[in-house]
Amino acid sequence: xxxxxxxxxxxxxxxxxxxxxxxxxxxxxxxxxxxxxxxxxxxxxxxxxxxxxxxxxxxxxxxxxxxxxxxxxxxxxxxxxxxxxxxxxxxxxxxxxxxxxxxxxxxxxxxxxxxxxxxxxxxxxxxxxxxxxxxxxxx
Length: 139
Hints:
- By secondary structure, the protein is α/β, with parallel strands linked by helices.
- The chain has a single domain (2-133), classed as Double Stranded RNA Binding Domain.
- It is 29% helix and 31% strand.
- It contains 3 helices and 5 strands.
- A 5-stranded mixed β-sheet has the order 2-1-3-4-5, covered by helices on one side.
- Strand 1, helix 1 and strand 2 form a beta-alpha-beta unit.
- The longest helix is centred in the N-terminal third of the chain and has 15 residues, at 19-33.
């Protein structure tokens, strides 16, 4: 079964970060591990995948303290303004009418200044958790 990436909301605050490419590689890797073949564009794909990343800038001081306790790897310079709430929304839609047949989201803490190795692992974990309920080919 084939899948095809469709949409990414490229928020201006992502600047020159490589969040999009890291997210795409995590999504492709997880879909392929579940038995799907990824196709960047192919008229014979079975469904489209779409994803959106939403950021919210406001965190209280107590939120930041709790975040640093839960995710010590984020604690690099203790700058409050580096942390945001983020949501990742993934969906799968039919090719014929682009009707969403499956959609899930996850909310987590985002630090746009995080080192790529930590960001990649967190994105992989997030994508894996979101796709836990995604159907396996043949089911």
